[in-house]
Design brief:
Distance between the termini of chain B: 62 Å
Strand order of the largest sheet of chain A: 1-4
Largest interface: A-B, 73 and 52 residues
Helix content of chain A: 55-70%
Number of helices of chain B: 3
Number of domains of chain B: 1
Distance between the termini of chain A: 77 Å
Structural class of chain B: mainly alpha
Strand content of chain B: under 5%
Radius of gyration of chain A: 28 Å
Oligomer: heterodimer
Number of strands of chain A: 4
Radius of gyration of chain B: 24 Å
Order of helices and strands of chain B: HHH
Helix content of chain B: 40-55%
Shape of chain B: elongated
C-alpha cells in the first residue's frame, strides 16, 4: 500500500515557497448539482420509458409528450448530470494536479451559476417545444449564446490555473480536460450556426445532407469529448487516488490520449450509413470507428490493470467497485460502437433500440458509475467527515444500479434486434411478413416494461446516492478547514528538455541542420508540449480542427455532387409553419424521414430518399430512431381526414399505436404573424422563395382555407385556422416533389407553385 | 454564390490531405518518443503526480498516508 510517492519530488526546485489553499467550495457546489440533476434526468428517463410502454403516461398535455420530454431527458443526462460531474471532477483534480488554486474564484462561481441557469432554461424551454431539433443540441439560440459565454468563462478559469501552476509536468488527466474544453467549444460553435427568426426560433444555415453531416459530426463528438475524454481524465485521476497506486502505465495513457484525439473526430459519419450521405464519407467514418477499438481497449486495460494487486480492496470498497464496473462498461461500449459502425451491422441496428441500448450501456454504466464512484470518494473529503455516511448504502446502490443496467440493456438489446429483424422479414412470396409497422411495436412492449423496471432500479440507486451524500454533508464540521499548502512556484524552465548545444556541433564538422534533425528525432518537442500548456492546447486544437476540416470541407462541396432535382421546390409558407410544428413537437424523436435503399424499406415506405430532396430542409429531420414508421413518403398516402382523426387520437385509427394524442393542435390557432419573418429568414439562407417573400401570410391563409374546405368536403369538422391544418399541409407535401413534373424554365429562381396537398 | 459555393471553390481540399499525412507522422513520433527507453523513468514519475495532492486532513480509503508534503 505504501508505494505512494515519497521518494519522488518535482524536478524543478526553488528556494522560495508559496502558500495557497484549494477551493473546495466550488467542488461541493458541483457535486450537489450533479446529484440533483442526475435525479431529475433519470426521473424524466423513467417517465418517457413508461410512456412507450403505456401511452396514457403522456398525460394528454402538450408539455409532457414523449417528443418534448425525450430531449429534456437527453440534455439533462448529458449536460446537467454528466456536465456537473465533469466540472466537479475537473475543479477538484486540476487544482491538485497543478498545485494551484483555481485562477479566479469569481469565475468559478460564474461558471457554476451560469451553467445551472442554462439547465433551468433548458428545462423550461424544451417542454414548451422551443427547440432546434438537433439531437443533443436542441436548445434555441439565446441559450446557445449563454452556453458559449459560460464555456469561455470556464476556459479562462481553467487555462488561468494552468498558467499559474506549480507542477511542471502536466498530468495526462489535464490533457483530457484540455481536449474537452477546446473541442466542445469548436463543436458547439459550428453546429449552432443559425439565423434567428424570433427570440424562440432560428433556422440552421445548413440544409439537408450538410445539416445532417454537421449535426452528426457534433453528435458523435459530443459523445467523444463530453462523455468520454473528461471521464477518462476523471479515471486517470480518481482511480489511482482510490486505489492508492499510480496508473498501470502512464505511457499507455499518453498513447490513449493522442490516439483518441487523432481518431475520434473522424468517426461521425457512421451515424449516417445508407442515408443520402455520400458513400466515401460513410466508409471513412466506418474505418476510423473501427480503428478506435484499439485505443479504447488500451485505455480500459490500463484502467483495470491499475488495480493489479489491489483487487482485495475492490471487494471492500464501493468506490472501486463503481470504477471497475464503469471501466468495464467503457470497454463494452467502445467495443460495440465500432461494431455498430460497420455498415452491414448498422443496416440492422440503425433506427432500432439497439442504438438506445448501446447508448445506455455507455451512459448508465460508464458515465453514471464513474460519477458515482467519484462522488462517493469525494464526499467525505470535501465535506470533511471521517467517512461516508453509509458504506453499506453505497454497496446497495452499486448492486441495485448494476442489476438495473442489466435489466435495461438486455431488454432493449432484445427489443432492438427483434424489431430490426421484423422490419426486414420477407415471406416465401417476397412480401413483408409484418407490413403493419405497429405489429413490430406491439411485439417489443413487454421489453419496454422490463426497461421501466431497470430504469426504476437505477433511479432508486441515484436517490440513495443523493441521500447518502446529503447525510454525509449533514455531518460536516461547523467550519471547513482550509489547510495551507506549500509549494514552490515554477521558475524559469531550465529542465532537461532545453536542448543543449550538442557537443558534436560545437566541435564542428556537423552541419547545423544535422543537429536540428537530431533534435526532432529525439522528439524533444513532445516533451516540451507536455510541459507547455499553451503549445499543447494549440496542437490538440489543430489536431481536432484538421480532422474536422477533412470531413467538413467536402460536405460543402457536395452541393455540386448532389444531383439537383428540378421538381423539388421550397415549402409553401403554411407548410413551413407546419414543419415548425413538427419540429416543436419533436416528431423526429420517433419518426425518421430517410428511407434507406433496401428492399425492406422501399417495400414498406416507398421510393428511397435522395440527397437532392432535402436541399430546402433547414434543419434536416432525418431522425435517428423509428419508434413509429418513417414519414418521408407520407405525403398523399392518406386523406386529410385520416390525419385529422389520427392526430387527435392515434389509437382510434391504428389499434395498439403508442403515439400520444395531440389534442392541443385542434385548439391552438395558427399564428400567421410569424410566418413572414420565417419565410424571410429562409430566403436569406438561399431558399428561392420568389413571391412568398412579399406575401407569405396571404399565401398561408389561402392554403389553410383550401385544406379546411377539403377536410369539410371529406366529412370532417370545421378546423378553421387551427394548427392541425398547417401540420397536415406539411405532412401531405412531404416527399412528394420528386414525383412531380418540374416547372419550366430556370427552376431555381422560380416562385414555388402553389401546390397544395393532393 | 452561397457559402457552399464559396467553400467549394476555395481549393481547400489539399489542406486536409496534407493534414492527414502530418497527423500520421506526428502520431508515429509521439508513440516512438513515449515508448523509447530513455523516457521510462521520467514518465513513470509523472504518473505518480495524482498520489501527491497534499490533502493533509483525512485518511483515504485503504489507509494511505498522503499527508506528507514533498516539495
Amino acid at each position: 500500500m505504501d508505494d505512494a510517492a515519497h521518494d519522488w519530488a518535482p524536478q524543478i526546485m526553488s528556494t522560495e515557497v508559496e502558500t495557497f489553499r484549494y477551493d473546495d467550495d466550488i467542488v461541493r457546489k458541483f457535486v450537489g448539482a450533479t446529484l440533483l440533476w442526475g435525479a431529475v434526468a433519470m426521473l424524466v428517463g423513467v417517465i418517457i420509458a413508461l410512456q412507450l410502454a403505456l401511452p396514457a403516461a403522456n398525460l394528454n398535455l402538450p408539455y409532457t409528450t414523449f417528443g418534448r420530454l425525450r430531449p429534456l431527458h437527453t440534455n439533462a443526462a448529458i449536460f446537467a448530470f454528466a456536465g456537473n460531474a465533469i466540472f466537479a471532477a475537473i475543479y477538484y483534480s486540476s487544482q491538485r494536479l497543478l498545485k494551484a488554486r483555481m485562477f479566479n474564484d469569481k469565475l468559478s462561481k460564474a461558471h457554476f451559476w451560469g451553467w445551472q441557469a442554462i439547465i433551468v432554461s433548458a428545462a423550461v424551454t424544451l417542454p414548451l417545444g422551443i427547440t432546434q431539433s438537433r439531437e443533443y443540441a436542441e436548445l434555441e439560440w439565446p441559450i446557445d449564446l449563454a452556453i458559449a459565454v459560460v464555456w469561455v468563462i470556464f476556459a479562462i478559469n481553467f487555462f488561468g490555473t494552468i498558467a499559474k501552476r506549480r507542477e511542471r509536468h502536466i498530468y495526462v488527466a489535464i490533457w483530457f480536460y484540455i481536449a474537452t474544453i477546446v473541442t466542445v467549444a469548436i463543436l458547439h460553435i459550428f453546429n449552432n450556426i443559425w439565423i434567428p427568426a424570433s427570440m424562440t426560433k432560428s433556422y440552421s444555415v445548413y440544409a439537408g445532407v450538410q445539416d445532417a453531416f454537421m449535426q452528426w459530426w457534433y453528435g458523435h463528438n459530443a459523445v467523444a469529448f463530453f462523455l468520454t475524454t473528461p471521464f477518462l481524465g476523471l479515471m486517470y485521476y480518481y482511480l489511482p487516488k482510490a486505489a492508492n497506486r499510480p496508473v498501470f502505465s502512464y505511457r499507455l495513457s499518453i498513447l490513449h490520449f493522442w490516439s483518441l484525439v487523432f481518431i475520434y473526430i473522424w468517426a461521425g459519419p457512421h451515424h449516417l450509413h445508407y442515408t443520402a450521405l455520400p458513400e466515401w464519407a460513410s466508409t471513412l467514418g466506418m474505418a476510423f470507428s473501427v480503428m478506435l477499438w484499439m485505443p479504447s481497449w488500451g485505455g480500459m486495460i490500463n484502467g483495470l490493470l491499475t488495480l493489479r494487486g489491489a483487487w482485495n480492496k475492490v471487494a471492500r470498497d464501493p468506490v472501486l467497485k463503481f470504477f471497475v464496473v464503469g471501466i468495464t462498461f467503457y470497454g463494452m461500449s467502445t467495443f460495440e460502437g465500432p461494431l455498430l459502425s460497420i455498415k452491414s451491422v448498422n443496416s440492422l441496428s440503425h433506427y432500432t433500440d439497439w442504438t438506445i441500448a448501446h447508448v445506455h450501456s455507455g451512459a448508465l454504466g460508464w458515465n453514471g458509475f464513474m460519477t458515482f464512484g467519484m462522488v462517493y470518494w469525494l464526499a467525505p473529503r470535501i465535506f470533511q467527515t471521517k467517512e461516508l455516511y453509509s458504506k453499506k448504502l453505497a454497496e446497495a446502490h452499486f448492486w441495485l444500479g448494476t442489476i438495473g443496467i442489466l435489466f435495461y440493456i438486455v431488454a432493449i438489446y432484445a427489443a432492438g434486434v427483434t424489431q430490426g429483424l421484423m422490419w426486414r422479414a420477407f415471406d416465401e412470396s417476397g412480401r413483408l411478413v409484418y407490413p403493419n409497422f405497429v405489429e413490430t411495436v406491439t411485439e417489443i412492449i413487454p421489453m419496454y416494461w422490463v426497461r421501466v423496471v431497470g430504469g426504476l432500479m437505477y433511479l432508486t440507486g441515484m436517490l440513495m446516492a443523493a441521500f447518502n451524500v446529503f447525510m454525509t454533508w449533514k455531518q460536516r464540521p461547523d467550519e471547513y478547514e482550509e489547510p495551507d499548502i506549500e509549494a514552490a512556484p515554477l521558475g524559469e524552465d531550465t529542465g532537461p528538455d532545453r536542448a543543449p548545444e550538442p557537443e558534436l556541433a560545437k566541435a564542428g564538422g556537423v552541419l547545423p541542420s544535422a543537429y536540428k534533425i537530431a533534435y526532432f528525432a529525439e522528439a524533444k518537442w513532445h516533451r516540451i508540449w507536455e510541459r507547455k500548456a499553451f503549445k499543447f492546447t494549440v496542437m490538440t486544437t489543430l489536431a481536432v480542427i484538421t480532422a474536422s476540416l477533412f470531413e467538413i470541407i467536402p460536405t460543402f462541396l457536395i452541393k455540386s455532387n448532389v444531383p439537383t432535382i428540378a421538381s423539388v421546390q421550397p415549402y409553401q409558407p403554411l407548410e413551413l409553419y407546419g414543419r415548425d410544428i413538427y419540429i416543436e413537437e419533436g416528431c423526429y424523436n420517433c419518426h425518421s424521414q430517410m428511407i434507406r435503399p433496401f428492399r425492406a424499406e422501399t417495400e414498406r415506405y416507398g421510393e428511397y430518399s435522395k440527397p437532392g430532396e432535402f436541399v430546402y430542409d433547414h434543419p434536416f429531420q432525418w431522425g435517428s430512431r423509428r419508434i413509429g414508421p418513417d414519414l418521408h413518403r407520407i405525403g398523399g398516402k392518406y386523406s386529410h381526414m385520416w390525419h385529422v382523426r389520427h392526430m387527435k387520437n392515434p389509437r382510434e385509427v391504428v389499434e395498439n399505436s403508442i403515439m400520444p394524442p395531440y389534442a392541443h393542435m385542434y385548439d391552438d390557432d395558427i399564428d400567421y404573424s410569424v410566418i413572414q419573418p420565417r419565410v424571410d429568414v429562409m430566403a436569406m439562407l438561399g431558399v428561392p422563395y420568389g413571391e412568398a417573400v412579399n406575401s407569405a401570410e396571404d399565401m398561408a391563409r389561402q392554403q389553410a382555407e383550401l385544406i379546411r374546405q377539403e377536410i369539410i368536403a371529406e366529412g370532417g369538422p370545421d378546423l378553421k385556422d387551427k394548427d392541425i391544418i398547417a401540420l397536415i399541409a406539411y405532412l401531405q407535401r412531404m416527399g412528394t416533389d420528386i414525383f412531380k413534373t418540374p416547372p419550366e424554365g430556370d427552376t431555381s429562381q422560380e416562385a414555388p407553385t402553389a401546390a397544395v396537398a393532393e | 454564390m452561397g457559402l457552399s459555393g464559396i467553400m467549394g471553390k476555395a481549393g481547400l481540399e489539399i489542406f486536409a490531405e496534407v493534414g492527414l499525412v502530418i497527423f500520421l507522422v506526428v502520431f508515429a513520433a509521439v508513440v516512438w518518443n513515449t515508448f523509447r527507453k530513455g523516457r521510462k523513468a521520467e514518465l513513470e514519475e509523472a504518473g505518480r503526480i495524482p498520489l501527491d495532492d497534499f490533502v493533509p486532513v483525512h485518511e483515504r480509503t485503504g489507509g494511505s498516508d498522503d499527508e506528507e508534503v514533498t516539495s
